[in-house]
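Sequence only, no structure available. Ideas?
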Amino acid sequence: MDFISKLQKKWTENKFVCIGLDPVSEKLPRGVNNFFEFNKEIVDATGDLVAAYKPNSAFYEALGVKGIEQLQKTTEYIKSKYPEIVVILDAKRADIGNTNEGYVKFAFDYLYSDAITVHPYLGREALEPFLQKKDKGVFVLCRTSNPGAGEFQDILSNDIPLYQAVAQKVSVNWNQNGNVGLVVGATYPEELLKVRNIDGSIPILIPGVGAQGGDVEETVKAVQKNFLISSSRGIIFASNGEDFAAAAKAEAEKLHNQIGQSLATL
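Reply:
I predicted one. Tokens follow.
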């Protein structure tokens, strides 16, 4: 099953939660020896609630070879035990075409990911190695969740903010294979609404709820459909005790229920 088919199946099951698998060595519960052990417990506890998992490669790369091995074991485990769940590599890649070929092989051939995050700065031509993988997903950074996002993303391009120009380009020119989505932070619900008005159906990956302060109800009201709401720290670090997996499940279920309640009011 390809990326978009997996997403659509999860959406028909009313599953919109994406959990960021972003472990930190100092926060691992006592008795958990490595990132893979931690991730496995989180995944097994929450697999019935989520549409996607999103490991951020930076947390694994920081540990060198051992970290990459833990990332590969994590994605392999999800793909083998929960093949219906989407795996998004949060790597924010993009370079010239030849370099992107390497990123493509790492993300999709070595890590078995279903999708990857990329930034649009080099343009479509450079991103073709990603866009041409018709069975894989490409989430393009549009309006990011960080406080300083507007420094460049609000610069006017043809009388509209750059993030809106990105949304238009991606929607009209980049998504010819139907495998491209956008990243828009929950911390900017007004901008999220403007992006959704540009394209009413494109998948939108929405970080920024939980620890970053994004509001679930405002987010759902703005985006309406075809979305993933991602939370990392607020779920995986809900407890650092022996009950960490159960605590993560409780937080994931809370987010799942909040999304469902918000959708019911539309």
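Residues 56 and 90 are 4 Å apart (CA to CA).
Hope that gets you unstuck.
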